# Entry
Amino acid sequence: MQKNKVYIETYGCQMNFADTEIVMGVLQNQGYEITNQAEEADVVLLNTCSIRDNAEQRIYGRLGNLKTLKYGKPAIVIGILGCMAERLRKDLIEDKKMVDLIVGPDEYRRLPEYIDTAFSGEKGIGVRLSRTETYDDIIPYREDGLQAWISVMRGCDKFCTFCVVPFTRGRERSRNLNSIVDEMRQLSNRGFKEVTLLGQNVNSYLDDENDFADLLAACASVDRSIRIRFTTSHPQDLSDKLLYTISEHQNICNYIHLPVQSGSNRILELMNRTYTIEHYLNLIERARKIIPGVSFSTDIIAGFPSESLEDHLMTIDIIRKVRYDGAYMFKYSPREGTKAYKMDDDVAEETKAKRLQEIIDLQRQISFEINQEQIGTEEIVLIEGFSRKSDQFYSGRTDSNKIVIVPASESIKIGDYIKVKINKASSATLFASFEGIIDVQKDALPLTA
Ligand code: SAH
Ligand code: SF4
Ligand code: F3S
# Structure
């Protein structure tokens, strides 16, 4: 019998990308063939994101395009997975009749059944959230490569007042440590060189008595030639033990994504972020002491309800004080069902846009300055492939996640760690010369500079 073909598009955060690999693992087990051509698929799935309104609008736009596909091939099943499935099931199935299938993040195990329901002409709907599902035993479908993700926990219990994630992903739960370490081993055997451990709030990972620091240490020990990254850390739970673990393991990247959201204590309280700016700055200072040279990135929201000019200037101030390597910066977007939705969205659109632009400009300037300071220094780079612009150059990244361009040469292979010297920099990219190969078998690593 000919196999059914499935095509998936993924939107949103890295966790959604990791989930797509789980979904493909589940479907492949059931005999589906994965295709990267929507036109030839029997099942077209969108793994969706609800974090801001524009994320959802993009999906509605895409669904509009897919309708044409469905006119030409009525038997095709079009489905929504991920965070929008939880938020908009009624809207998508009853009101707009746009899709045949809606399956939320905790029901992927049963996806094949729901697809069968949809093939039989009914709507396949699975949107229950679970307190226990972690997909421990599912082997994700991964193409060969250098970089991989592992979800180490699911859900979020923080309930920041602006955020839909606790509603779309349900309660926090951690995956079993041994199953994660096993997956690390499989990745090592397949030659992966960089693994990112994922969770909305990895610092609250807990499996029996093992906390996130224990998990990181266990993962780092599997294969010293694999760089370990992790995201996201919540400033409330980042422990000194974790900082020491990062500093003790040469292959754990000296890089922490630590969303601050706002520089104003009043706004942080309205956001239910549960820390103050003083606590946050203290944490940054401790991290810099324990992990010399550590880099930070952050997330910032401009224009949260009631944000005054003074609050905004405090955000500008925190960006100046910390000097982040990079930042993800957003305009506040009200999300139905959250606590902040009930607050008055009273910062005018133009004001939000103006404040966001100021934040972006400042961050760009700081990234540029930090990169300029790198000129003349040595870095260790994992070579990932040819540069986007030319195959005369390789592109790779430092442990602080900066893109580095080096001239291609016969002595360098994709997947090598090399030592480079930085000789030019823009706000987004470093340019470097080749200094030598790091022999991960022989050299006592540092894989981090
Ligand atoms: N769990 C992570 C990230 C979650 S979503 C954390 O706690 O940091 C990624 C980022 O999207 C958030 O850090 C926040 O800056 C932004 N975000 C979330 N909800 C938003 C909203 N309603 N409007 C604008 N930005 C939002
Ligand atoms: Fe959302 Fe806050 Fe949880 Fe992050 S920690 S996912 S921002 S509720
Ligand atoms: Fe989006 Fe869901 Fe991730 S809302 S950011 S895909 S957890």
User: Anything to note?
Assistant: The domain at 378-437 is CATH 2.40.50.140 (OB fold (Dihydrolipoamide Acetyltransferase, E2P)). Residues 12-13, 15-16, 49-51, 82-83, 164-165, 168-169 surround FE3-S4 cluster (ligand 3) (CB under 6 Å). Residues 160 and 384 are 36 Å apart (CA to CA).
